[in-house]
Write a structure and sequence with these properties.
Blueprint (H helix, E strand, L loop, with lengths): L22 H4 L15 H9 L14 H6 L4
């Protein structure tokens, strides 16, 4: 299973691997970010670039602004 930093299973995405190879391969710019003027996924920035974690759920900030905005379970 190829898991993204947000916890999503990339293999469940219809675009994987043909049009998108996932966060690791695209340096945080999966296919959907092309809709936002060369945006990097905020979860990738926080998790990988700032905190150097292997996934978002390793973070100890339970009231994280990103998790709240995306309405993800904590």
């Amino acid at each position: 299973m190829k898991k993204a930093y947000c916890g999503m299973n990339c293999e469940c995405c219809v675009e994987f691997p043909r049009r998108c190879q996932g966060c690791n391969t695209t340096a945080g710019k999966p296919l959907w970010t092309s809709e936002f003027d060369d945006c990097v996924c905020p979860i990738y920035v926080c998790c990988v670039l700032k905190k150097q974690l292997s996934d978002c759920w390793e973070c100890h900030e339970t009231i994280c602004a990103i998790k709240k905005k995306l309405e993800m379970p904590m």
